[in-house]
């Protein structure tokens, strides 16, 4: 019986190790979540202003198509997760960003905080399922897409209650696509662009950049 139990313990070891790493926060991790949240919150506020204009353009005469330009609101969860790589970092960054955008002023009021909560949960779910060990472009795109789908589930009856099921499903598909490309791939590219500046040297993303440089130079 003891011998039979050993393989199970061995298999569960990496899971426990991943969880231990994911919940061990340094001071710089907490500070970075806050700073990223504030910076992306300013981006959210700016996008809110532009969205109010762009969403009325004739190209969006088919209402569900506005999902195609909704991806920027998911950047907080994706970027926060990719940089800090800790449990709760994606959620925290997205919620702080939503709070900052609310303080600066937006057209949705307090409901934007709830949007930030569900969007952050969506990104967090993906990173958790990957055991906080996969941070490539595919993981980022999945985080953006699932974040969008969580937002859609919240928005359907709050903002789009008068839409038929067909329109809601099309909106969900468009939002998920925008989340995957704009927040997911875009957020991954943003982190890759920040790494050479030295701003991420205290994080795995920065160390990975230096490792890539060492391999190419060698």
Helix content: over 70%
Annotation, overall tally of beta strands: 0
The helix-strand sequence is HHHHHHHH
Apparent shape? globular
Structural domain count: 1
Biggest sheet: strands, sense, closure?
A: none
Assembly of the depicted chains: single chain
| SS strand fraction | under 5%
Overall radius of gyration: 19 Å
Strand-pairing-aware structural class: mainly alpha
Distance between the termini: 50 Å
Give the averaged pLDDT, no decimals.
90
Helix count equals: 8
Give the uncertain stretches in residue-range form: 1-10
Keywords: Membrane, Transmembrane, Transmembrane helix
Transmembrane segments: 27-47, 53-75, 87-104, 110-130, 137-157, 169-191
Pfam family, one: ABC_cobalt
Organism: Mumia xiangluensis
